[in-house]
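$ run holo --ligand "flavin mononucleotide" --emit tokens
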Amino acid sequence: MNRDIEDMRMNYTKGNLDEDSVLDNPIDQFKVWFEEATNSQILEPNALILATVNKNNIPSARTVLLKEIDPGGFIFYTNYRSEKGQDIADNNNVSMVFLWKEIERQVRISGIAEKIDPSRSEKYFHKRPKGSQIGAWVSPQSTIIESRAVLENKKREIEKKYQDHDQLPLPEFWGGYIVKPVAIEFWQGRPSRLHDRIRYALVDGSWKIERLAP
Ligand SMILES: Cc1cc2nc3c(=O)[nH]c(=O)nc-3n(C[C@H](O)[C@H](O)[C@H](O)COP(=O)(O)O)c2cc1C
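-- output --
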């Protein structure tokens, strides 16, 4: 099996990326690539890996879904009391990675995570299907639970409580974070491992664009 893994490799040939043709603002550049990823039949192009660090400097990473590209950053939603929420409360430096392997691209973002305004979270919360709203109330995300039955029982209880309502109130422990980027790197696979890497770094309030060796 390890031999098979050793033999797994692809040569990347689908595109290139040039410092002269990228847009001045990395969020605008991200929008261009996101649109191309969306049009490429990629399943959940808005799925990203979010890495956080806890108060003991131990990193952890998990998948979340991008829900909005704001001119100031990238918004995702979660339970504020989850492990990631506690990590961010202790250290709001985060890192995000989008892998769009079907188009041989990766985007890597470092930034500062901040809670968004509850009114904005509420607006999004109420756009979600009622079942997802119930799910947010039911799950004490990242805590240890005795069995699946804990969730099923709580679900029945919440469903009953709100059976005559179309919407549930926004839980105070649930909402969005905006990740305000300080660096964004766009990676395009190229033949023979000589990939293109263009990194934007925020220097004195302006975006500096540099090419990195692959
Ligand atoms: C495709 C995919 C999308 C996910 N999207 C989210 C999301 O948007 N928000 C979220 O809180 N968890 C999401 N999860 C679950 C997280 O990966 C994770 O299990 C959960 O948030 C608990 O993480 P934590 O204990 O590190 O806080 C998603 C998982 C997958 C596989």
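-- notes --
The pocket of flavin mononucleotide is lined by residues 44, 47, 60, 62-65, 76-79, 82-84, 141-142 (CB under 6 Å).
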